Amino acid sequence: MFSRLRSSPCRALVALAAAVAAVTVLAGCGTFSTPSPAAQTPVAFGHIHAVVPEAGATILVATHMGLYRVDAEGSVEGPLGGYDFDVMGLTVTDGVLIASGHPGMDTPSELGSPNLGIIRSEDGGQSWEPLAFTGEEDFHVLTAGPDGQVYGIGSSSPVVQISGDSGSTWMAGSEITAADLAVTADGVIYVATQSGLFASDDNAAAFGLVADAPTLYLLDAAGNELVGVDTDGQLWRRSGQAAWTPIGTAQGTVAALGLAPSGVVHLVDDRGIVALDGDQATTILPAL
């Protein structure tokens, strides 16, 4: 599946960031539709850092101004719990929310400053508790595996951090400069880097290049399905070890990407929050 490497060098993602910033509007390969304006309530989220599908058709939207819940009709709930922190990283494991970022003006001081470290909510975002790296670290990259393990990379180090107890304690894996992480049902950890897609089948002890993969900068997984977006704005899907398949194109830079167990892909691009289901792309919530 991939060639074995013991580790990848710690290198800045300057080239990848530049490529992402240069993404242009491309012709879509699907049919795009938008719900009627009456069904939508535009919200000034500011920057969206992550979208995480929940059970059913709702998604969690991690923003600069708090965490929100959005349904398939574009109805918005939030900020959840009234928390105004900047949610830079977000994942869900067994119904528990794991997040990171920076405090807002009214964020309780016990959650950490200037960085939140790892915080956890067991009630859908209505309340949060500080767990680890409090005040020290900001995790832009967080994801959970099918076995409940949580993986993250903080802003101060390229080391993959691993937690087996929903974020309470962490151990260090290999170093790899990553733009995003995703874990498939078979336990393989995929990492998007400026040098290509890398993978580990030994719990982040070592990573190897996935030679047939496009150069992706955002990833997500559900079961053994993996989706990603490349630096040209092309969206890709792979099922198991099958070949990569193009599934559509973005309009502008994709800021966040999420794959639901149903197969629906949620993304945030110049249109707003978009749901891609087969060859139909629907703008759930338009950009302001």
From TrEMBL:
<dbReference type="InterPro" id="IPR015943">
    <property type="entry name" value="WD40/YVTN_repeat-like_dom_sf"/>
</dbReference>
<feature type="signal peptide">
    <location>
        <begin position="1"/>
        <end position="27"/>
    </location>
</feature>
<protein>
    <recommendedName>
        <fullName>Exo-alpha-sialidase</fullName>
    </recommendedName>
</protein>
<dbReference type="InterPro" id="IPR054817">
    <property type="entry name" value="Glycosyl_F510_1955-like"/>
</dbReference>
<keyword id="KW-0732">Signal</keyword>
